[in-house]
Design a protein that fits this description.
The structure is a homodimer. The first copy, chain A, has about 350 residues and is α/β, with parallel strands linked by helices. In chain A, about 40% of the residues lie in helices and about 15% in strands. Chain A contains 15 helices and 11 strands. In chain A, α9 packs across α15 (about 340-355).
Chain lengths: ~350, ~350
C-alpha cells in the first residue's frame, strides 16, 4: 500500500512495530523491517554502547530501514533519599511476602544519560528516530537532519502534536488512550492525555492541516489486526503503530509469563499504573499493582523504575507474571502468537481483505 | 447503506442520534428520523406523562422509526440527609460567590420512578428502546418483545456486552471511552470501563461471534463525521451513534452557552466528572468542575443530580456555560452547527466519499 509516507521511508507497508523499551531485541526489529514494515528498537533503557551494539546487530540482520526510539529525559535526576529508603523497605517486604528471594539495591545511576543515548542514536544513524516524553531541541533536530534521519515525535493530545510539528518533526505518532506501555504525555497531566484514537486522529488531522508542509500522522493504540490498520487510514493515519500485537512474537524478548497472560486479559483489567516506574503506563492490573506499597507510589520516574527493575527481572526469571510490569494495550487479548514476518503479512492480508469486502 | 441492521429497523442510514437526556426535544428526534437516521428521545429525566407527551409529539412530526432511551435505576433512593444538607450549604455558597441568584432546594423526589418510566415507554411503543446503567430483567424483556420493540443495551466493556446479549438485547451499543455524557458502566468501576473504540469494537465483535444469533454492535464515542462512521463499520459496527455531533443542531435544546463553548473545547479539557450528578460523566472541565464543593462530590446519583438541576437551569438561563454541565465527547470541537437533516445528509455524503476514495 504505497503512499507518500511509505515511499519516503522506503518501506512496503504502513506498519510500524512500536519501540517497546526492553522488549525489542534486534531479531524482532530486523524481522519486521525485512517483512516490509518498520521495525524499531526501543532504546529508552539502553546504555549508549548497547544502542550501538544492537544497531549493529540489526544492520547485520537487515538492510531495510528501521527506527530507534528514545525517551526524552534530563541527564541527571535528584532523588529524595529518605523516600527511596522507605520505598525500598516496603518493596523488599512485598517481595519477601511473595516468596521472591530478591531485594532492591541502590543503582549506580537512575537512568542512562539521555544526551549520550542521543549521541549514540546519531552515530547509529537509523532511517528513523522516534521520541517520547517531550520534544527535541532545535539543536538536536539539526543533528538528526544533518544525518538525514527521519524524525517521529509522539503526541497524546492535539497540543502535543502541534508542539512536535512546530519543533520540526517529519511525522507525529498519536498515542491513543488505548495504547499499552508508558504514556508519552508531556504538556498535560497523564489523565488528561487519555484521548481515544477515534477522537484524537480526526482532531489531529484538522490541526495538521494548518501547517504549510505535510505532517503525516501515525495511529497507535488498540490496533491488533488489519481492519484496525484500515480504520486508522480512513480516519487520516498514514501508518499504524502496533506494540502489543508484536509482544507474543517468538522474536520478542518479553517474559514468557507476560506473553502467556496476554490472551486472557479482560479489557477492564488494563489500567493506568504508576507503581512500576513512577510514570503513568498502561498495563495489566496484576498482583504487584494491587499490592504496590504506598511509599513506592510516591517516587517519580525514573527513580522508581530503577528500583523495581531488578525485582521485575527476578519475577520474570521465576515465571511470576503477577509481579511483572505486564504492559499492554486495551485490546491485548487479541494477540496472535506467530513469527513477526507472518504477523506483518497477516495484518496486510486482513487490511486488503477488509478493503475489498467494503460494499462500494 | 442498507444492511441487515438498517433493514430490520427500517432506517435508511446506519446512524443513531444518541438519547442525550435533557437535550433531545421531539423536533430533533423527528428531524433525524425523517432524514433517514434513528432519532432518539433521551427520557432518563422525564416523568412518565412527559414521555407519553413527547412521544406523541414525535409521532405527529414523523412516521419514521425512533427510539426512547432510559436509565435503569431503582424505583426509590435513600439519601443521607446530613450529607445532603452539607452539600446544599456548599453549593449555595458557590452559587453566591459566582453571583448566580439561585439556591438549592429539597426536590419532591430524587428521580422519576423508573418502573413508571418503563411502563410509559411500553405504552409509547417506539420502534426501539435503548437502556443504560444496567440490564433489563427477563420480565421487562418480555414486555418489550410483546410490543415488538427492538432492544438496544449500552455496554462499556466486553463483559457488559455479554451481559446484554445474555439478557436478550437485539443489539448492543458500545460506549467508547471517547463518548460524552454519563458513563453507562454497571459491572465495573467507571474508570475501568473507559475502553477506547479501537479496542472495544474488535473485542466485542469477537465476543459476539460466540453467540448463535446475530447481535449487531453500535459504535458510540468520538464519531463526528462520515469517515468515523466508515471506520466504525470497518471495525465491525452495524451503525454509529453520535451525540455530541448533534448538540449544535438548532433543533437541540442544549443551552446556547454550552453550544457556543463546544467548538473551542481542547481534547485535554474533556474529562470525567462526578460532581454534577454523582455518576461519572464525560464533559468539559469548566469553572463549576474546578470549584466543585467537596461535600457535593461525595453524594451519589441521582441525589446530587437532583440538587444541582435547578442550579444548572439557572446557569443556562444566565448564559453561564462555565457553571453548566457541558457534557461532550473527546472530539467535541469537531461539531458543525447545522440543522439535523443537513448533518445526517453530510455524514452520509462524507461516508460515501471516504469509501470511494480508498485506493482499491
Amino acid at each position: 500500500m504505497s503512499s507518500p509516507f511509505t515511499r519516503r521511508l522506503d518501506i512496503e507497508h504502513p506498519l510500524i512495530q512500536a519501540p517497546m523499551s526492553g522488549s525489542t531485541p534486534p531479531s524482532l526489529v530486523a524481522a519486521v523491517s525485512n517483512a516490509g514494515g518498520l521495525g524499531s528498537l526501543g532504546a529508552g533503557y539502553l546504555e549508549p554502547q548497547a544502542i550501538l551494539d544492537q544497531a549493529a546487530q540489526i544492520r547485520a540482520l537487515s538492510d531495510r530501514p528501521y527506527a530507534i526510539g528514545l525517551f526524552i529525559l534530563p541527564d541527571a535526576f535528584e532523588a529524595d533519599l529518605e523516600a527511596v529508603a522507605k520505598a525500598r523497605e516496603q518493596l523488599d517486604a512485598l517481595m519477601a511476602r511473595e516468596g521472591l528471594g530478591v531485594r532492591t539495591s541502590m543503582p549506580a545511576q537512575w537512568a542512562p544519560r539521555y544526551s549520550d543515548q542521543f549521541a549514540a542514536l546519531c552515530e547509529a544513524r537509523p532511517a528513523v528516530a522516534m521520541f517520547a516524553f517531550g520534544v527535541i531541541t532545535p539543536a538536536q533536530l539539526r543533528e538528526l537532519k544533518q544525518r538525514d534521519i527521519y524524525v517521529i515525535g509522539t503526541a497524546t493530545t492535539v497540543d502535543e502534536a502541534r508542539a512536535w510539528a512546530d519543533g520540526g518533526a517529519d511525522a507525529v505518532s498519536l498515542q491513543g488512550a488505548e495504547a499499552g506501555g508508558h504514556r508519552s504525555t508531556f504538556l498535560h497531566d497523564a489523565e488528561d492525555g487519555m484521548i481515544g484514537l477515534f477522537a484524537l486522529l480526526p482532531l489531529a488531522v484538522r490541526a495538521m492541516a494548518a501547517y504549510s508542509r505535510d505532517v503525516p500522522l501515525i495511529a497507535a493504540g488498540g490496533i491488533m489486526d488489519g481492519r484496525g490498520v484500515l480504520a486508522a487510514e480512513i480516519l487520516g493515519a498514514a501508518a499504524s503503530q502496533l506494540g502489543t500485537a508484536f509482544l507474543t512474537c517468538p522474536e520478542c524478548s518479553a517474559a514468557e509469563a507476560w506473553k502467556q497472560d496476554l490472551p486472557r486479559v479482560e479489557d477492564y483489567q488494563v489500567t493506568t499504573i504508576r507503581g512500576f516506574s513512577g510514570r503513568a503506563a498502561r498495563g495489566l492490573r496484576n498482583r504487584f499493582v494491587e499490592a504496590m506499597p504506598s511509599a513506592a507510589q510516591g517516587l517519580p520516574y525514573p527513580i522508581l523504575n530503577a528500583l523495581t527493575a531488578p525485582l521485575r527481572r527476578a519475577a520474570a526469571a521465576a515465571g511470576r507474571g503477577d509481579l511483572l510490569s505486564e504492559w499492554c494495550g486495551q485490546a491485548a487479548s487479541l494477540v496472535r502468537p506467530q513469527p513477526a514476518a507472518e504477523l506483518v503479512a497477516r495484518l496486510m492480508y486482513e487490511y486488503r481483505l477488509a478493503k475489498r469486502t467494503l460494499e462500494p
